[in-house]
Design a protein that fits this description.
By secondary structure, the chain is of the alpha+beta class. The protein has eleven helices and 14 strands.
Length: 375
């Protein structure tokens, strides 16, 4: 692709892990002239982008600050640069005692004839938008940039940069399956595997959750009635707690997992749940507490209780189906009240107290004398 012109700016170049890094200043209004904002979305080809939607109130607050007079705005914007950029090192004497951590020169940022841009904003999309709207279009802002056109690298850096900030957990969880776990902190890795399982359960037609899970990119689709965060929490507990239903599919040292085993086990249990409670399955949470976060997490705890027992049966699927069908008449997912809980079906909320009470109730039902012959 031939560039018809380019921006030339003074910059410092260094390297990390063999990747060129640049630091320089740009007039605030020019950041969006050279860099795109890659929005998080979902298409038929899968997950695209990584940036959340802009928060207009936050942007307007920054614009007001920038327009308030002589302001200090030293927060660096992080860019990923296309490999098409070029750098020419400056010549000159080396100062005595110089710490050799970088080299000065001129960085050329191409402006392709097709209108595309040579960079992507990894961190600072809202600051960049505010700078473009501010009255002082020449305010110099610091830029830190690394060279990479690999979307996975952009996502990794986006997650790591924002780890210390309150990024929405659901946004991070949806991005995590797209990122190489070797570059993530341990706590992020622990969320990556459950989120990848949720992704597969939503996308695979063999799953009872097929097309039912609401993620950040699916918006307010009324067909998607299960919030992903409830499933992520459930699977995280089941994978990483010793007695969790999915713990056996993770090696003791945590270095390997069996995602197919996790998926098949989850499908086995939740398919039995769907069959046992057909009138409550697939409804919005305000019509069915089975699809509510409290119901998902409580049934996940019941799964932890039942799966070791199912594994001892000749036909685990038949055991699960029979057990859940037997307790179905006593479950108040869509009407009436829960026995022993002294509350109506729609009074169950997503609090730790209610989830614990509902879990205890489900296990008591399974342990009732009428069901002992099943176990």
């Amino acid at each position: 692709m031939k560039a018809i012109n380019s921006f030339s700016i003074r910059a410092l170049r260094s390297y990390q892990a063999g990747v060129p890094l640049y630091t320089f200043f740009l007039p605030g209004a020019k950041v969006l002239e050279v860099a795109d904002i890659c929005r998080l979305s979902r298409s038929k080809d899968g997950l695209e982008g990584f940036q959340r939607e802009a928060i207009q109130r936050h942007i307007q607050g920054m614009v007001q600050y920038l327009d308030s007079g002589r302001v200090l705005f030293p927060n660096a914007i992080l860019l990923a640069l296309s490999p098409r950029v070029s750098f020419s090192r400056s010549r000159g004497p080396t100062p005595e005692g110089l710490i050799e951590a970088g080299e000065a020169g001129v960085l050329k940022l191409p402006r392709p004839s097709d209108g595309s841009k040579c960079a992507w904003i990894v961190d600072g999309q809202q600051r960049s938008t505010a700078l473009a709207r501010a009255g002082d279009r020449d305010l110099p802002v610091p830029i830190v940039a690394f060279v990479s056109d690999d979307l996975q690298v952009h996502r990794e850096q986006f997650i790591l940069v924002n780890k210390a900030r309150p990024l929405p957990k659901r946004l991070v969880d949806e991005l995590l399956p797209e990122v190489d776990a070797t570059h993530l902190p341990a706590d992020m890795v622990m969320r990556q595997i459950p989120s990848a399982l949720v992704e597969r359960l939503d996308a695979d037609s063999a799953s009872p959750f097929f097309g039912l899970i609401r993620r950040t990119t699916t918006g307010k689709d009324p067909q998607r009635v299960v919030t992903d965060s409830a499933l992520v929490r459930t699977f995280q507990r089941q994978i990483y707690q010793p007695l969790g239903a999915l713990a056996s599919f993770r090696s003791l040292d945590g270095t390997s997992t069996n995602p197919s085993g996790m998926f098949e086990t989850a499908v086995l249990f939740w398919a039995a749940v769907k069959a046992a409670f057909p009138d409550a399955w697939g409804l919005p949470s305000e019509q069915s507490r089975l699809m509510h976060s409290a119901g998902i997490e409580s049934m996940g705890a019941l799964m932890d209780y039942l799966m070791p027992r199912a594994a001892q049966q000749d036909d685990p699927q038949a055991y699960l189906s029979k057990t859940l069908r037997c307790i179905a008449p006593a479950c108040a997912w869509t009407n009436d009240a829960w026995p022993d809980l002294n509350c109506a079906w729609n009074e169950i909320e997503s609090t730790s107290k209610d989830i614990r009470r509902l879990t205890d109730q489900l296990i008591r039902l399974v342990q009732s004398p009428n069901l002992r012959q099943v176990a």
